[in-house]
Design goal:
The complex is a heterodimer of chains A (414) and B (252).
Chain A (H helix, E strand, L loop, with lengths): L2 H6 L11 H28 L14 H12 L2 H11 L9 H22 L8 H4 L6 H25 L8 H37 L11 E2 L2 E2 H29 L6 H36 L15 H10 L2 H8 L6 H28 L15 H24 L6 H4 L3
Antiparallel strand pairs in A: 1-2
Chain B lengths: L11 E6 L8 H9 L19 E6 L9 E6 L8 H5 L5 E3 L6 E3 L9 H5 L6 E2 L26 E2 L5 H13 L15 H5 L5 E5 L6 H5 L5 E2 L11 E4 L3 H6 L8
Parallel strand pairs in B: 1-10
Antiparallel strand pairs in B: 1-8, 2-3, 4-5, 6-7, 9-10
Classes of the chains: A mainly alpha (414), B alpha+beta (252).
Bound molecules: iron/sulfur cluster (2 copies).
The site of one iron/sulfur cluster has 14 residues of chain B, from helix 2.
Organism (chain B): Solidesulfovibrio magneticus (strain ATCC 700980 / DSM 13731 / RS-1) (Desulfovibrio magneticus)
InterPro entries (chain B): 4Fe4S_Fe-S-bd, 4Fe4S_Fe_S_CS, ET_IronSulfur_Cluster-Binding, Menaquinone_reductase_QrcC
Protein name (chain B): Molybdopterin oxidoreductase iron-sulfur cluster-binding subunit
């Protein structure tokens, strides 16, 4: 048997896949992007972070924005896991595998970027060794590493279900046993992930000398703690649907029913509505209490084009109200509105993470300083693109060889 | 406000008389040499250059003849309630009884720059590249302060090593190291300020000049209302300068 023939025996039962040649071309394009990013990564490690566009004014930039955004969008995994295994919405079993893989990609990708972003990556474990229990970042370091482990544990049984691997009795049983305990891990995952989505928000909210980001709160948690959790679980399911839709588009095959996608969007939309209510309350309190207390006005929070008010309105109106309408009304039945809603919901969370990361630092708190502009450079773009390419590669391989869509065979019967 | 104000019996503080400052930059230069700040390769990039002490130019934004300017030297404000300390995940920076000076432990810092984000005074500097001293210049390195590797955050520590030296000197002279005479411990910038604009001492010690200076009706601190409670005080008899120290709303 030629290799091309053998490769075909690796596919999940009863599905069709594009030719190996085509798949290889696709992988090589992604590989080139990933290699370029890898090169940038080596340059950063070798010469120091001076090769990036960051500076003493913008200690956080594209990387942190990117991290926060992918982590929020990856939130589909923990939240869907919670709904599927703990609350037992059975229909979600048709999309749960996709969300697990997506979560794994997002978190491992974010970890990759984080290891670049700290000036002393070899000391990263100090977060465990010399933890400062008052720092939200310590909580992030704890939860993010533990949660990545949970995601790996959730991903392994998927790999074990690959047709050839599954023929090995030991691995077959292992996969089965892992499935049995999955609700436990879904629970742990949901806990860890909720906490660190929250602490990521908390990281900004506790910066009391940065009125753009600072928030009062509840007990030790600033409001951003809860807002970040809510926005993540609102956009996470939408992102899963977008990925699913995108995969259907390029593979030309049906992977899940519209019903499942629509359900995911409904969940996302509901969460978005709750988030919208709290976000509006929070914004109101910010404008009328926090800013005046700091001697600042709403208008002083915006500047020029990159930090303009358009961002504020895009985030709070275009990317909140509009998607809520698209996702929670009968409009959702039409693919156009459903996908538009999902895209806007995800865009909103990206804008939110951007303004909290960059605009919060750009806003001059010292009255005699001025707004500064931050532009990421090639090293930051290349490494971020590397993570995206890495995600595409993992997803492509998983789709080709792993049975991640239980409905695929049935939906594509001729 | 998050965090709590920390109080210590000895509270080192700096008082800067803005009306006396000519903006000459001697404080900046003396700080750089005293603390082994690497000769700047690209000092034209103000957002990348390291300057633990930085002199800002302030203006009242009025046209001639009412135009006026002032210079404001800015070391680390050694906040009583430091925004930077509570955020550090690894306790690389801390505020303890060491005269209320906010420390920075370079071998522990992981370089996450969260403290940079939290400090509104922009006093924290990150090592973007490995420090390099041009040949021969390494002879100027001070043995009293460590050289920082790249990838960690550094900042003004009120020349903390000088305090250690002053305490040692007091012990040798048979005096109480916890009750130093005024002037026994001053920072490098204070010592080298030609116009005498900078003063340094224990704010809580009535024998020290700064104890009185901080009570001046013209004294103010930067961004007071944010609750950082700094240990650096500024003095100016010009109202617009005092007002510029904090964000004043039009209605105020
Ligand atoms: S001025 Fe900045 S670095 Fe210094 S103690 Fe205050 S917050 Fe920390
Ligand atoms: S950069 Fe260093 S000192 Fe600053 S918060 Fe991170 S670990 Fe702490």
């Amino acid at each position: 048997m030629s290799f091309i023939e053998i490769e075909k025996t690796w596919y999940p039962e009863g599905v069709e896949r594009c030719s190996l040649g085509k798949f290889m071309k696709w992988l090589s394009v992604l590989g080139v992007v990933a290699l370029y990013g890898f090169f940038a990564m080596i340059v950063c490690f070798a010469y120091g972070l001076g090769v990036t566009g960051l500076d003493n004014y913008f200690g956080f930039g594209l990387w942190i924005t990117f991290d926060l955004a992918v982590i929020a969008l990856g939130a589909g995994a923990f939240f869907t896991g919670l709904l599927r295994y703990i609350i037992r919405i059975d229909e979600l079993k048709n999309i749960i595998n996709l969300t697990v893989i997506k979560g794994f990609i997002c978190y491992s990708g974010a970890m990759l970027i984080l290891s670049l972003d700290v000036g002393q990556p070899i000391r990263s474990w100090f977060g465990y060794w010399h933890p400062n229990v008052h720092s939200m970042l310590t909580e992030v370091i704890f939860c993010i590493t533990c949660y990545l482990m949970v995601l790996i544990i959730e991903y392994i049984p998927l790999i074990l279900e690959q047709k050839q691997i599954n023929k090995i009795p030991f691995l077959h049983n292992l996969a089965h046993q892992m499935h049995v305990v999955m609700p436990l891990f879904a629970g742990i995952g949901a806990f860890l992930s909720t906490f660190h989505q929250g602490s990521l928000g908390g990281m900004y909210g506790v910066m009391f000398a940065r009125p753009y980001a600072f928030r009062d709160g509840f007990f030790i948690w600033p409001w951003t703690f809860f807002l970040f959790v809510l926005s993540a679980i609102a956009s996470g399911p939408c992102m899963t649907v977008l990925i699913c839709g995108f995969m259907e588009k390029i593979t030309g095959r049906k992977l899940t029913t519209y019903r499942v996608k629509s359900l995911m969007c409904k969940i996302g939309g509901t969460m978005l509505l709750i988030y919208t209510v709290f976000k509006y309350l929070d914004t109101w309190a910010w404008i009328n209490d926090i800013l005046p207390r700091a001697g600042l006005t709403f208008d002083q929070m915006f500047y020029g084009m990159v930090y303009g008010k358009w961002l504020f309105f895009s985030e709070l109106v275009l990317c909140l109200i509009v998607p809520v309408i698209c996702l929670l009304t009968p409009l959702r039945k039409k693919p156009f509105f459903m996908y538009t809603g999902a895209i806007l919901a995800c865009a909103g969370v990206v804008i939110n993470r951007y303004v909290f990361t960059v605009q919060a630092l750009a806003q001059p708190v010292l009255p005699f300083t001025k707004w500064e502009i931050y532009t990421p450079n090639w090293a930051e773009w290349a490494t971020s693109l590397m993570v995206i390419a890495y995600g595409f590669i993992i997803m492509s391989l998983s789709y080709r060889y792993l049975p991640i869509f239980p409905q695929e065979v049935g939906l594509n019967k001729k | 406000m998050s965090g709590q104000k920390k109080e210590f019996p000895i509270t080192w503080g700096m008082v800067i008389d803005i009306d006396k400052c000519t903006g000459c930059g001697a404080c900046m230069a003396s700080c750089q040499t005293e603390n082994n700040v690497e000769p700047q390769r690209e000092a034209s990039n103000k957002l990348r250059a390291t300057s633990w002490m930085l002199v800002y130019e302030l203006t009242n934004d009025k046209a001639f003849p009412n135009h006026d300017i002032a210079y404001l030297p800015r070391p680390c404000q050694q906040c009583g309630n430091p925004p930077c300390v509570s955020v550090c995940p690894v306790i690389a920076t801390d505020k303890n009884e060491d005269g209320g000076i906010v420390s920075q432990v370079y071998p522990r810092c992981i370089g996450c720059r969260y403290c940079v984000a939290a400090c509104p005074y922009h006093v924290r500097y990150f090592g973007w590249y490995d420090p390099i001293w041009p040949e021969g210049m390494e002879k100027t390195l001070s043995p009293m302060t460590s050289v920082r590797p790249r990838g960690v955050v550094e900042k003004c520590t009120f020349c903390h090593h000088r305090w250690t030296q002053a305490k040692d000197a007091a012990r040798v002279a048979g005096k109480d190291p916890d009750n130093l005479d005024d002037g026994a411990y001053v920072t490098s910038c204070v010592q080298n300020c030609p116009s005498g604009a900078l003063a340094f001492g224990d704010i809580k010690n009535p024998k020290h000049k700064v104890h009185e200076l901080v009570k001046s009706p013209y004294a103010f601190r930067l961004l007071e209302r944010l609750g950082t409670d700094t240990q650096v005080y500024y003095i100016s008899r010009r109202e617009w300068v005092r007002k510029l120290g904090d964000n004043y709303l039009k209605s105020e």
